[in-house]
Structure formats: C-alpha cells, structure tokens
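Worked example

This section walks through a single chain of length 695. The input is the sequence exactly as stored; nothing has been trimmed or padded.
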Amino acid sequence: MPNNSFVEVAFPIPLNKTFHYRAEGGQVGSRVLTPFGAKKNLVGYVVGRTSEKPTFATKEVIRWIDAEPFVDEKLLELARWVSDRYLCSLGEALACVVPPALTAPKRPLIEKAVIPADRKPGSIMMGPPLESAGDDVKEGITLTSEQKHALEPLLAAVEEAKPRTFLIRGITDSGKTELYVRAIDRVLALGKQALYLLPEIALTPPFLERLQERYGDRSVALWHSGLSGGQRYRTWEAVRKGEIKVLLGARSAVFAPFPNLGLIVLDEEHESSYKQEDRPRYHTREVAIKRAELSSAVLVMGSATPSLESYWKAKQGIYRLLELTSRVEQRSLPVVELIDSRPPQASPHPSLPPQGGKGRLRGQAFFSVFSEPLKLAIEQRLARCEQIMLFVNRRGFTPFLRCSKCGWVSRCAACSTTLTLHIGEDQSLRYMQCHACSKRAPVITQCPQCRSMRLHQYGVGTQKVEEEIKKLFPFVKAARLDRDIAAQRRMVEKIYRAFLGGELDILIGTQMIAKGFDFPKVTLVGVVDADVSLHLPDFRSAERTFDLLTQVAGRTGRGDSKGKVLVQTHHPEHYALQAAREHDYVRFYETEIEGRKTLNYPPFCRLVNIVLRASKEPAAREMAEKLAEILASHFPKVGVLGPAPAPYSRVRNQFRYQILIKGTDDTLTPCLDFLRRHRPTKVFMSVDVDPADLL
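Given that input, the structure is written out below as tokens.
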C-alpha cells in the first residue's frame, strides 16, 4: 500500500466515532461509498488520512464519490466545532454542509424573481432596498446622522478584513437594511462574497427580488430547505465556484461553501427559528460567529428587539453595539393601545374608569373575537381604503373543545396536548388535529365522557379570525397567512404580492406576518390575543411576547399615514406589554435582565436541556432520576434542576422527562463530555445545548 493509504471516515449517524478504511487516491473532504456492518453500504465523509496501519482489521472503500473535495479545511473545522459544541457526531455536522444531490439536473441555475418589464435579464439595477431610507446609493439617498454614524465602523471593518461582530439595535423602519446593503456593496467591490440570513422562508420573496434588482439576477441566489434537491445542488456548486456573489437564505445557508466570504448579515437576530430543532441542534447565530472567525469575515446582526443574550454581550463590549433610535424620513412610531379583554367583574381594579389609564381601553373581546374599539378601528380604515393586519399567534380555528357540563377537553390519544379544530379551505372539511404529532381525528358533537351535547369552542385561531372578518365585512378581500397556508407551494409569495399591490384589504396571520415585511398602506395592526405566549412555562415567554408585539407593531405607519396598533389582552399591567406600548426596548431589557440575574438564567449562565423518553412512563422517570443523581454527584459545579415531566409530557406515545443543567463554559465542558460518552439503553435521550425554549 502507498503512503496515506488509510482514510478516517465519519458517517451521518448519531454515533460519536469515526471509522478507518483502506483506500487509494482521493482527498480529505470528499465523500466515499463504504461497506458498513455486515450487509449494507453507507456514504461517509473522509476527515483524515494516515499511512500508519491500524491495529484492527479494516475494509476497503468501494468508491470515491467526489473527484474533488466538497468541503475545504475551514468548513471541516466548522463541522468539528459544531460537533463539539452541540453534541452531535462529526458526520451529522458534515451532513449540514454536503450538497443534497450528486448530479445537477439541466434546469436554470437559480430561483428567479419577477423581472420588471423595463429591465433586461442579467442587468444590474440599483433599486430601492427593503426597509431602507429611500432610493439607492446612486438615485440620491441621504442617510440619517445615526445611519452615517453606524455605517462608518461597518465599512472600516469590511476593509480591515478581520473577524468582527456587530449588533445593530434599530427600531422598526429605521433603515437597518440600508446599512446591510451598503456593507454588501463594499464587500462586492473588494471581490468577496456575502451571505444574507433570514429566519423564515416566508420572508425570502421580497428580499430576493430587491437584492437581484440591486446586484443582478445571476449574482444573487436563494437557499433554503423548501427548494428541490436539484435547485440546492446547483446553487451550492455556483457558490463554491464563486459565481454567486450574494446568497440569501434561511439558517442552513450558514454552511454554504463560500471560497471568499467577506460578510454575513443575520437579520432579525432575536428569532428563535434560527435554532435547529433536530440534530445537530445548532444555533445559527453561534455558527455564524464561528464561520466569520474562520473566514476573517464581518458579522452584522440586526433587530428591533435583540435577544437579551446578544444585547447583554454588546453592552459588555463582546459585540460592537450600533443603535438606530428613529425612523427614516422622520416617520413617527405607531400609537399602541392596550384593550383590556377581561369582563368587568374579573378586573383586579373594578373601581377604575373604562379608560383605565393612558393607552388602555376597556373592550368586549372576552365575548367575541373583536372588541368594540378594534371593530370600530377596522371599519374606519376600510372606509378610508387603507390596509389592515390582524395578528394571532395560533393557527387553526379554535385551540380545543370543552364540555361545559363535565369539563372534558379534546386531547390527542397519543400526546398530552389538546386537539385543535381546523376547517378546510372549502369549508366542507372539518377535523381535529394534534399540533405535536400531526394526527387527525373527526369532529365530534357529543361529549364522550358524559354524553351531553354541551361541547363548546374555546380560544381563537387564525381561521376563526378569518371567518369573523368575512361575517362582519362580507365584501372585504382578506387572506390568511400561517403555516397551513405556507405549506402550499408559492402561496406565501402570491399573498405577499397581492397585499403589497392593494388587491387585499386585510391580512390575517401568525408570527409569519410580524417581521420583515414592508407594506406602506397598512395603517392599523390588530393583535387579537396578546396572551398566547405570555404565560408559557418557559423563562423566555415575556421576552417572546414583547418581541412579537414590537415587531408586529412595526408593520404599520411605514407610509405617508400614521399607524395605530390595538392589542387585546387579559393582562394589560404586565411589564412586557407596558414596554411594548411605549416602544421601549431598554425599559423591557432592564426589567427582564434583573429577573434573569436573580434566577441565574442566560445570559448569566448557559443551559443544557436533557429530555429522556420511553414508551413506558416508569422507564423514562427512573432513568431521568438516575441520570440527575449522577450529574449532581459527579459535577457539583453545575446546577441540576429536575427531573420533572416535560411541559409536553407525552408525545407520540412517548413519555418525556426533563433535566435542566445550568453552568458556564468551563463547568459545562466535563459534563457535556460525560453526556457524549454515556448514552442510556432502552430509553432515548436528547441533549439540547443552549436551547431556544424549554417546551
């Protein structure tokens, strides 16, 4: 055998080890087809070579798949970092990088945007950027003084070509995107590439079109999991060859094979959807920081409501903080009013007059979907031919059915969650669905427990809001945008364009409509139920509620007319809602950070969430108790909370127990090493490092 005739191979399986095979030729970073076990073959990733013969018997590689490496040394190092930090195998980390197809079908290179009739395909047209101060750098934009102050260090860092991390806290419509694209301009002028990350696939159509207008159709491409394997492969190849200058994508785009990356933009930095739910459970923000470090690139993160962890780090000087505190063109922030949805007898202050204080109205939302103030505001906007957005962060028609006689509640037979009532688009199909396991059940009219006919709907979902709008305003054109609608091909883009073009009067949706979109004709935002996320059993529930309200409020007042936001809530006194009413991020941050410090939650510690599940409840509980005892005794420098039943205590007939670990980088390292090496038998264990939530 010639030198370097043995290769080290990692497989995309949850097994924390690599394997050695005999092989000739090929390079590190390539894929190989190998025998694995007694009867099957697997595709693996070559992560090392050696000429030293292993002390154990080895098999021979069947064939090399790649003529040249599909990952370079920097991407391989990034994969090792992901494997170490998030407790996945190296092969699982590399699977995030590997192209999804082996050969490229003969189709157009990239996803095309709609090209204006007055522009030739492939031409470069510096058009108006999203959420910008106006036209482009050359039709004569004048930056605000805050924008100028923020742009200078960004451009200096790009020129310096050293890894730097910036956090832009800019209120909605303050011109953050103009800073992004000007930084991209400078990067492209230096002959480098840029990555633009968004938290939701739904946000990509308008951003893709604007970026292609600015930089040319063939210089900009789209990357997300909704594309076909062929589309993703062609884009992957074009990025690797340097043909794509700007890549727009969701979280997986952070692993794209840029040969000359100069800038990463992480828009809406606070979004929890940047956290991957399945192995490897990486956080895009942290991977982007590491990617920028390895590439000597600049990372720019932006949000109107930065995560508390990032803002705290910026205040500590770990990130460079840039702030935009006013809207462009001197537009005013919308007035936000809190509508108390409680019936009068439920109010803790029955002596208060109906107004109940500044910015707070007494409504009747307890008895109907819309309070009288919200209904009147909708009527007024429709009369003026203005557009309206209605937000409720719960899809479906109603969250559950309950018997008013015996208290029975509709629940999934396989999970501990309630069944949500859904209605088909043609109104003929009605079904109950579990949002944990997706199983469906027929709608019943009689209580299965007491046999009474007193089943009632409780709570409000997007479909119920849509139905109520059609009843109250039958001639109004309204559309709904939630996960059910987004699952239909190109529906997000169709609805977006219809609403932007004035073909729709009202847009109803979940958090998908709360961020990124720029609709100048929207003058009213109605939040149907602000309490959906407020009291979830998660330490970030107040932060998530404040973020959503602030972001959705920012969708209005972006044109010539002033905007208004009406928020229906049973808890108008809550500090998160009061801060959102005043558009006061700093006030919310200062209140929330004190609570985090007192209870020792991030950013003052790091968390590891361990969930053990089994088909038998005693098996899951006993293993959780045993593991918690081992962790507490072996690693006294970390905090061990639990075990306890998980908030969703049963999913898909699996009983779930939870252990939460608190610690620092130093104290968690030996604990994570232990969890990597020791996996329980007969019980499945998942480990989520730096979880986005604890649900």
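What to look for: Confidence is low (pLDDT under 50) at residues 102-138, 349-367.
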